[in-house]
Design goal:
This protein is of the alpha+beta class. It has a domain of about 130 residues. A 5-stranded mixed β-sheet has the order 1-7-6-4-3. Strands 2-5 form a two-stranded antiparallel sheet. The longest helix has 17 residues.
């Protein structure tokens, strides 16, 4: 039986190390998301609503972005295909913004559900579905989104940030070393 395991491991080792790709010892690391997706408190929402009532330009700017994103976010459903990396979109509701003099402040996205300041949340491993490779769903399709935020000390600001809107399946060849082959045989 040990001979069979040794043959299988040698074949796997030869197969994986003779591929065009270089072996990888760790999965891809995702870039952190700039912002939080927690629910805004009623107090913050009220303060934003009061400030919006007093600022026609920002209210018009938000409405313009909402209308623009309504056209962009229409997408077709491909019924005949299986998505190996399904995504869920989450709304950014707050983030830290530079307000000048070397200071940052926690600011809140104005009407986050309407402005659609979203990022993709990916889950899943082995999305490639192969015994010889490892794979993982990773955020991709980074898009620059411009949106309005409200900061408690300085009011409204129009800012832009990059957020991923898709998920992609990243595949890699795991490294097999003589030490891992020895461990498998014992």
């Amino acid at each position: 039986m040990k001979t069979l395991y040794a043959v299988v491991l040698v074949v796997l080792f030869a197969y994986c190390n003779c591929q065009d790709s270089t072996c990888v010892t760790y999965p891809p690391r995702e870039k952190a998301i700039d912002g939080q997706s927690d629910v805004q408190s009623k107090d913050i929402q009220c303060q934003i609503d009061v400030a919006l009532r007093n600022d026609d330009e920002v209210r018009l700017g938000v409405a313009s972005l909402v209308a623009e994103r309504a056209l962009v976010y229409q997408h077709d459903k491909f019924v005949s295909y299986q998505d190996t990396c399904p995504r869920r979109l989450r709304n950014i509701t707050s983030l830290y913004v530079y307000i000048g003099s070397g200071k940052t402040e926690k600011c809140y996205v104005v009407e986050p559900n309407r402005q659609r300041v979203t990022y993709a949340y990916c889950s899943g491993t082995n999305c490639y579905g192969s015994f010889f490779y490892k794979s993982q769903c990773v955020r991709s399709g980074w898009t620059r989104l411009q949106f309005w935020v409200w900061c408690p000390t300085c009011g409204f600001k129009l800012i832009a940030r990059w957020y991923p809107q898709c998920c992609s399946c990243y595949r890699w060849t795991p490294c097999l070393t003589a030490a891992s082959v020895d461990r498998e045989m014992s």
